[in-house]
Design a protein that fits this description.
Elements lengths: L25 E2 L14 E2 L23 E6 L5 E4 H5 L4 E8 L4 E12 H5 L10 E11 L5 E9 H4 L5 E6 L2 E2 L9 E3 L12 E7 L6 H4 L36
Length: about 250
């Protein structure tokens, strides 16, 4: 008799607690809440896959093509190859993830390079207050065709201690469908801000809407305030927005 192998990413009935985090890991503060699931979210034990238009056509076995560029309001652009990036100091983060499509996966262990360590390698000009994250994939344009995928967030949120550029999830390299070889992790915001397949970080003076933000999603996306969409009225109020799921992020 043949038995289907268990999904290695499937969690048990009890979500991982901060006490189970690896030694030395940064503990995202939201994991210490009495109730770790924001309003109108539901816990999933699985590891869902969503994206805006499919993963980019890239080779994860040979990463000679890969570059990460720090650009915009900087004294000089900084470009990392994959080998250079992998030599940077490593950090682990224990964090929950909340998708705007209403699922939450609790107790993820990410490993990579913390944003704060990355920022030590670039001189950002003082007028920079926001970042625009660029990805290797393309989404379907709201005006037709396809467009480069981006997302925006305040520099202050980008610099939080629990934010990192991750290449490992729960002890395994991040697969292509989940954003490999490298994705951004911003635990305190909805998961579309945790951009997959990142290729550049642009420092800006203005808060420039990214792909899903141009389509009506919130400019910040705080799950604890239910900042899903940005329309007139209460920013924290949910609405019946039509359209695709903002899922470069998960």
């Amino acid at each position: 008799m043949l038995f289907q192998s268990k999904d290695p990413k499937l969690q048990g009935d009890t979500p991982p607690a901060p006490e189970a985090a690896p030694p030395g890991a940064v503990i995202s503060p939201d994991t210490r809440r009495d109730n770790r699931i924001p309003s109108n979210q539901a816990r999933t034990k699985k590891w869902p896959v969503l994206d805006a238009g499919g993963p980019p056509n890239v080779d994860l076995k040979n990463l000679g093509w890969w570059r990460l560029t720090l650009t915009g309001l900087v004294n000089e652009d900084v470009v990392f190859t994959w080998d250079e990036f992998r030599k940077l100091p490593r950090t682990r983060v224990f964090a929950d993830m909340h998708c705007v499509t209403r699922w939450s996966r609790l107790g993820n262990v990410w490993e990579g390079v913390s944003v704060r360590d990355l920022m030590a390698h670039v001189q950002v000009q003082p007028e920079a207050k926001f970042v625009l994250v660029h990805a290797y994939d393309k989404g379907f344009s709201f005006l037709g065709g396809r467009t480069d995928w981006t997302t925006n967030l305040p520099l202050s949120h980008f610099m939080d201690e629990d934010c990192l550029l991750a290449d490992t999830h729960d002890g395994e390299p991040i697969s292509l469908e989940h954003g490999g070889p490298l994705r951004l992790i911003v635990p305190k915001l909805y998961a579309w801000k945790s951009a997959k397949w990142i290729k550049a970080i642009e420092f800006r003076v203005d808060d420039t809407p990214g792909f899903w933000e141009r389509g009506g999603y919130h400019m910040l996306g705080d799950p604890w305030k239910e900042q899903r969409y940005r329309f007139s009225g209460d920013e924290g109020e949910d609405t019946d927005e039509e359209g695709s799921d903002p899922a470069n992020a998960i």
